[in-house]
What we know:
Belongs to the UPF0145 family. Helix 2 (28-36) runs parallel beside helix 4. The chain has a single domain (8-245), classed as Hypothetical protein apc22750. Chain B (Translation Initiation Factor IF3, 2-Layer Sandwich). A 4-stranded mixed β-sheet has the order 1-4-3-5. Helices cover 31% and strands 30% of the residues. It has 6 helices and 8 strands, in the order H-H-E-E-H-E-E-E-H-E-H-H-E-E.
Amino acid sequence: MTTSDLPKDAGARLQELEHGMFTSDLSVNEFLLVKRAGFHPLGLVMGSSIYHIGLQKGNWGSSQEMTKLSEAMYNARELAMKRMEEEAEQLGADGVVGVRLDVKFYEWGNDSAEFIAVGTAVKAEDGRSYRNNQGKPFTSDLSGQDFWTLTQTGYFPLALVMGTCVYHIAHRGLGQAIGQLGRNGELENFTQAMYDARELAMKRMQDEATNLAAAGVVGMRLEEKNHMWGEHTIEFLSLGTAVARVGDAPVTIPQPTTIISFDN
């Protein structure tokens, strides 16, 4: 399956949405705020990739990136994202909000996983194009509330950017373990390995944002997962929404709405 060959049922579902009805995983509040930001939801869009993750063994006493595993985790997510974006393209969307990236492992093997990207495709109600500078629908994992707030401050999402690094953390030797027994002290080799791995993931996410000519990244988070590799091999995933300044209008910070209470 390629990124241009969506399932037949997906095409039929998207065609039904072209007649005016929309689907969305936005909450009621998110729906109203996305509408207030000037965008109308078109439909829930999804991309999926079931990926076989190859075998790579780390050196027991050495900290190092597992490049083969890093590449697999990155490529699998990219396939899911591209297929989600293609569904948005078929709906004529300007972007996708509330994107979620999930990984699921099934009983048929610990070396295979399904990568899923899900979000709500939206279209601008003013008729203008809000696609990013690569000509693609923008993607964002911001909530509907955060999306509205961002647009009110003169910024706009470009794309969900990510960086990943699967890293093997060296085991302690017997001499090290005995030498530190009963004593307080930093485990310097562990500290350095975790530090290096996080830096690689964050730098790769930052490079994606730079390629989009982004002004910055908001909503950034750094996730750590063992998956099925054991406690000494960890994936570090850095995610965030790359944003750009729109126009030269002064930034206006939205003020909280005053709630009037009518007491009896």
